[in-house]
């Protein structure tokens, strides 16, 4: 996908690529409060999709419901397989991996141990584990230098690199990220997003949830705008020109 | 005032019982760290270890090593059963932690009753693992069993430390203790890890019971005092690492044992519970570098 050839985004039936994940009528609530009204969403193989929305729009709930961390109703299929009833720990083996908001690191463990846990599903296949270490260290050289450091003692940017690197150790087909730029200096956040762009160019499907539009739009091919638990718009990323446009979706 | 000999002797005795408290404490920590559950049935694992070993060793005449190993495996199995039948269903229905903790207390009472009905209420014991002794150093007597407790305790802590740091399952268990959601997202089966923690913890309790029984006795009711003291040791150790829990146990054992010679046996539990309160008041993170538990 090149910038000169913007993919005609929008309805599924014009997308030439098969669906990686399809979410149909997914809803979730906390007690009586509906955090997610029935939402439809999909990511095609190798696509970079961003979900934008204000604080409290239901973005985090959306990702957590897909991962079965909150109970949701609705149908979720991954490469054609219905995964709506699977438990959270089954998803990583299928290739669905999420980087949580706040990174979810094992803070008292070393960088290396965190990465090893990313490869938990590989069992004791040492060669493959080493190969993935090589890939992650190539993407984030800082992590190699800090391999024996306790995760919690690193800077925020390095922690976010570790969170992404750990997810990559699981060998994802779909990487979901919940506000990876939160709390990071713009330059650091841009670096993380550049890495995501590189991964996407190698064919990794990405579903990114962000509150800050500019960073997230640079890489995305398609954007969903979520507000008050509903999808307000679905459009090619290049059609969102300014914050002004976004505000229109948020508050309409 | 007690003589120096009495004090040193009480120190020796205290280290022995304290190591056993420490092993029980490690059992508390393993489950608590994996799940946030304080398993009040921990004491019955200690009692069952001694009871089962007695039955096999004395009634069936099996060799000690076989009796001990079979007992440990059987008690680990009971730990798994408790997790599968009681804890897991409650956990999956998102029962509040305190309800699960109360359920483990009910399990303790239930198992005690089953033991009374099936094995009777008479106290029983079996001889030291190595006959002879005690070893006399001047006027100080050191039971051979103390060396068994020391050796086995050190070995178990070493094996546990290796397990937690060097194996995939051990790392996954630690991961669950730090962030269960993140662990599950990476494919760690959190349920199975919780089951493993109950098996490990029950096995540790059983080993503690098997080691301590020759120096005193076992009966259906010893679970509660052992469980309480193990819990206090775990609090002193800060619910963190295995060596810290073991140190907590030794400290508690030595202070209790000292209290017996200085102020009398009746004050043993008064002293233990006072230590518990002092630690909770002034060292809520534990004395030995334990870590604060994040929710």
Automatic annotation (TrEMBL), chain A:
Keyword hit for ATP-binding: yes
SUPFAM superfamilies, A to Z: P-loop containing nucleoside triphosphate hydrolases
Entry keywords, A to Z: Amino-acid transport, ATP-binding, Nucleotide-binding, Transport
SMART domains: AAA
Biological processes annotated in GO: L-amino acid transport
Domain of life from the UniProt record: Bacteria
UniProt-listed CDD domains: ABC_TM1139_LivF_branched
Gene3D superfamilies in the cross-refs: P-loop containing nucleotide triphosphate hydrolases
Domain ABC transporter: 21-251
GO molecular function: ATP binding; ATP hydrolysis activity; branched-chain amino acid transmembrane transporter activity
Similarity-based family: Belongs to the ABC transporter superfamily.
Name of this chain's protein: ABC transporter ATP-binding protein
Automatic annotation (TrEMBL), chain B:
Molecular functions (GO terms): transmembrane transporter activity
Bilayer disposition of the protein: Multi-pass membrane protein
Claim: Nucleus is one of the keywords in the record: no
InterPro entries membership: ABC_transp_permease, BCAA_transport_permease
Primary residence: membrane
Transmembrane segments: 12-33, 40-58, 64-85, 97-120, 140-164, 185-211, 217-237, 244-264, 270-290
Cross-referenced CDD domains: TM_PBP1_LivH_like
Keyword Cell membrane found: yes
Record GO biological process: amino acid transport
Keywords: Amino-acid transport, Cell membrane, Membrane, Transmembrane, Transmembrane helix, Transport
Annotated Pfam families: BPD_transp_2
Cell compartment(s), UniProt: Cell membrane
A GO cellular component annotation in the UniProt record: plasma membrane
Family the UniProt entry places it in: Belongs to the binding-protein-dependent transport system permease family. LivHM subfamily.
Name this protein carries in UniProt: Branched-chain amino acid ABC transporter permease
Upper lineage: Bacteria, Pseudomonadati, Pseudomonadota, Alphaproteobacteria, Hyphomicrobiales
């Amino acid at each position: 996908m090149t910038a000169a050839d913007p993919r005609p985004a929008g309805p599924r039936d014009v997308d030439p690529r098969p669906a990686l994940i399809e979410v149909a009528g997914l809803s979730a609530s906390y007690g009586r409060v509906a955090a997610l009204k029935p939402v439809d969403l999909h990511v095609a193989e190798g696509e970079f999709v961003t979900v934008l929305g204000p604080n409290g729009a239901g973005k985090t709930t959306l990702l957590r419901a897909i991962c079965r961390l909150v109970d949701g109703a609705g149908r979720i299929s991954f490469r054609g397989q219905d995964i709506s009833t699977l438990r959270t720990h089954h998803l990583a083996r299928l290739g669905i991996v999420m980087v949580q908001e706040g990174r979810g690191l094992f803070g008292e463990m070393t960088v290396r141990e965190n990465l090893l846990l990313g490869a938990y599903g590989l069992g004791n296949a040492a060669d493959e584990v080493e190969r993935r270490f090589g890939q992650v260290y190539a993407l984030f050289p800082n992590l190699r230098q800090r391999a024996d450091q306790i995760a919690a003692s690193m800077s925020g940017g390095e922690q976010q690199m570790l969170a992404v690197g750990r997810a990559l150790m699981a060998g994802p087909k779909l990487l979901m990220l919940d506000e990876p730029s939160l709390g990071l200096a713009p330059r650091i956040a841009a670096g993380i997003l550049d890495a995501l762009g590189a991964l996407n160019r190698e064919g990794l499907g990405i579903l990114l949830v962000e509150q800050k539009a500019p960073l997230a739009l640079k890489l995305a091919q398609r954007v969903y705008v979520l507000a008050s638990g509903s999808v307000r718009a679905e459009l090619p990323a290049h059609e969102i020109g300014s914050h002004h446009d976004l505000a229109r979706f948020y508050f309409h | 005032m007690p003589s120096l000999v009495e004090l040193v002797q009480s120190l020796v005795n205290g280290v022995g019982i304290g190591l056993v408290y420490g092993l029980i404490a490690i059992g508390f920590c393993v489950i608590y760290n994996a799940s946030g559950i304080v398993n009040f049935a921990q004491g019955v694992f200690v009692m069952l270890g001694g009871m089962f070993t007695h039955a096999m060793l004395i009634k069936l005449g099996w060799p000690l090593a076989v009796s001990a190993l079979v007992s440990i495996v059987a008690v680990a199995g009971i730990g798994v059963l408790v997790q599968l039948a009681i804890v897991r269903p409650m956990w999956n229905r998102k029962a509040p932690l305190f309800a699960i903790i109360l359920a483990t207390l009910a399990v303790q009472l239930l198992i005690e009753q089953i033991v009374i009905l099936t094995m009777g209420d008479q106290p029983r014991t079996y001889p030291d693992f190595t006959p002879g002794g005690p070893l006399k150093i001047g006027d100080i007597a050191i039971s051979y069993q103390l060396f068994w407790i020391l050796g086995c305790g050190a070995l178990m802590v070493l094996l546990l430390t290796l397990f937690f740091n060097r194996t995939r399952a051990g790392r996954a268990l630690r991961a669950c203790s730090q962030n269960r959601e993140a662990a599950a997202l990476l494919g760690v089966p959190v349920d199975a890890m919780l089951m493993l923690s109950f098996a490990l913890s029950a096995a540790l309790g059983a080993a503690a019971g098997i080691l301590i029984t020759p120096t005193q006795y076992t009966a259906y009711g010893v679970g509660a005092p052992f469980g309480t003291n193990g819990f206090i040791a775990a609090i002193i150790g800060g619910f963190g690492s295995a060596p810290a829990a073991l140190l907590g146990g030794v400290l508690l054992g030595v202070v209790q044992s000292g209290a017996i010679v200085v102020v009398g046996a009746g004050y043993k539990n008064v002293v233990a519970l006072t230590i518990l309160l002092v630690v909770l008041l002034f060292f809520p993170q534990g004395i030995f570098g334990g870590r604060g538990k994040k929710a």
